[in-house]
Design a protein that fits this description.
Blueprint: H1 8-14, H2 17-23, E1 29-34, E2 50-55, E3 58-67, H3 74-89, E4 93-99, E5 110-116, E6 121-131, H4 137-144, H5 149-152, H6 160-172, H7 178-196, H8 198-205, H9 208-211, H10 214-223, H11 226-235, H12 240-262, H13 269-276, H14 281-293, H15 297-300
Parallel strand pairs: 3-4, 4-6
Antiparallel strand pairs: 1-2, 2-3, 5-6
Helix pairs in contact: 1-7, 6-7, 6-8, 7-8, 11-12, 12-14
C-alpha cells in the first residue's frame, strides 16, 4: 500500500461511507470517489477531502474535514472549499467537519457561517458538525459496521478493551473484503495511536490474536526498527524499561512522519533532525496531535 494508505487522507478517500451516514442520516449517499483535484486552492489542504456522491438520481459534492478539536477558522475554510466546489462543478454541495476530541466551542447541530455584504448577509453557509465523542461507540459499531471501526475509537466508551475487540473483529471477520480489512486495521492503528496514545495502541496491537494477521504483521514490521525490537526483547532481562521507552519513541516518530507526509508537509533536513533528535515521548505525541490540524509545518512544532 502507498504512503497515504495509512493516513487520514486515505481514511476519507477509502472509507467515506460511515461519515456520510453520520452527517446525512436521512440520505442514502453513495460515494463516487474524490472530486477533481482542480477544485483545490492555494495553501489549502489536498482535495482528497472532497467527494462526488450520488443521492438517489442526483449527483452532489461533499467536503469532509477531520479535526482534532474545534477552531474558529474551520467555518471559513469549509466555506472556501464549498464555494470552490460549486464554481468548479455546479453540483449541490454539502460540508462536514468531524471532531475527534473535545475542544473549543463547536456549534450544536448544524453550523452556520455568514459572509457579510453591503446590506445584510451576502452568503449564509450551512455545514454539518459530527462530534464523535458525543456518540456511543458500541451502538455506532452496530449501526455503521466494521468499516467504521477507526471512527469508533474516538467515540464515547471506546476504552482499550473495546478497541482491542474491534481490532480482533476486523482481523477475523471474513465478510470484509480484503482491501477494506487491510485499510481498516491500519487506520485503526493510526487513530488508536492519536486518541489513546502510543502505549495503549502498542498493547492492543501486540495481542497474539491480532498480531498474527498478515496485515498487522506487515504494518508492525514496516514501523518497527528490527534492531530496536531485538533490543526490547533483550531488555526484558537487562534494561527493560529503557528498551521499551526507546521502542515507543521510535514508533511515535514513525507515526509522525506518516502524518506529515499525508498532510503534504515538506520534511526538510532541519525538521528531520528535530524529530529524530527528540527523545521525549510526550513531546512527540504533542507534535503528532498538532500535525493533524496544523496549517503549516511550523504549527506542528509550536510548543517547542
Amino acid at each position: 500500500m502507498g504512503e497515504a494508505d495509512v493516513t487520514f487522507r486515505y481514511l476519507l478517500r477509502g472509507l467515506p461511507r460511515p461519515i456520510l451516514r453520520l452527517a446525512f442520516p436521512h440520505h442514502q449517499l453513495e460515494s463516487l470517489g474524490p472530486l477533481d483535484p482542480s477544485v483545490d486552492r492555494t495553501r489549502q489542504r489536498t482535495t482528497d477531502n472532497l467527494f462526488r456522491v450520488r443521492d438517489g438520481t442526483v449527483e452532489a459534492a461533499v467536503h469532509v474535514e477531520i479535526e482534532r478539536g474545534w477552531r474558529i477558522d474551520i467555518p471559513p475554510r469549509l466555506f472556501d472549499y464549498a464555494s470552490a466546489a460549486v464554481a468548479a462543478t455546479r453540483l449541490p454541495v454539502g460540508s462536514v467537519v468531524v471532531l475527534l476530541k473535545r475542544g473549543g466551542h463547536p456549534p450544536e447541530g448544524d453550523g452556520v457561517y455568514r459572509v457579510p455584504g453591503i446590506a445584510g448577509d451576502a452568503f449564509v453557509f450551512r455545514y454539518q458538525v459530527v462530534p464523535l465523542w458525543e456518540l456511543d461507540a458500541r451502538s455506532m459499531r452496530a449501526s455503521l459496521g466494521l468499516e467504521a471501526a477507526p471512527f469508533c475509537v474516538a467515540m464515547q466508551g471506546a476504552d482499550e478493551e473495546f478497541v482491542r475487540a474491534l481490532a480482533v473483529e476486523v482481523v477475523t471477520d471474513r465478510s470484509l473484503p480484503e482491501h477494506d480489512r487491510q485499510s481498516a486495521i491500519q487506520l485503526l492503528y493510526i487513530v488508536s495511536t492519536v486518541i489513546l496514545g502510543v502505549d495503549i495502541a502498542r498493547r492492543i496491537f501486540h495481542v497474539e490474536s491480532i498480531i498474527q494477521d498478515p496485515n498487522v504483521q506487515a504494518l508492525i514490521s514496516e514501523w518497527e526498527d528490527k534492531g530496536r525490537a531485538e533490543g526490547r526483547v533483550e531488555g526484558r532481562v537487562e534494561g527493560r524499561v529503557e528498551g521499551q521507552v526507546e521502542g515507543r519513541v521510535l514508533e511515535a516518530r514513525r507515526v509522525l512522519y506518516r502524518l506529515l507526509a499525508a498532510r503534504s508537509f515538506s520534511v526538510t533536513p532541519d525538521v528531520r533532525a528535530r524529530i529524530d533528535g527528540e527523545p521525549d515521548l510526550a513531546r512527540l505525541e504533542s507534535w503528532l496531535d498538532a500535525a493533524m490540524v496544523a496549517g503549516t509545518i511550523g504549527d506542528v512544532f509550536r510548543d517547542g
